[in-house]
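Why should sequence recovery work at all? Because a backbone constrains its sequence more than one might expect. Tight turns favour small or flexible residues, buried strands favour hydrophobic ones, and helices have their own preferences. The token representation captures these environments compactly. In the example below, the structure is given first.
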């Protein structure tokens, strides 16, 4: 994975500002943060649901 230095991060930020505009950046950041938190909550509830379920046993027959 390539290392991102301060100059690369500055250019990425500059491109984002040009593409989306300075007015939309706060709403984009808010949406991104909410999406990440919902994703983490979904992972936690999925893990909790899997631990509460009984393991499924399948029978295999040999031929």
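From this structural description, the recovered sequence reads:
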């Amino acid at each position: 994975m390539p290392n991102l230095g301060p100059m690369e991060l500055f250019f990425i930020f500059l491109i984002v500002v040009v593409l989306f505009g300075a007015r939309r950046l706060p709403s984009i950041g808010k949406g991104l943060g909410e999406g990440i938190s919902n994703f983490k909550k979904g992972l936690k509830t999925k893990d909790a649901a899997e631990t509460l379920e009984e393991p499924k046993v399948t029978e295999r027959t040999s031929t």
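A few observations help interpret the result. Residues 34 and 52 are 27 Å apart (CA to CA).
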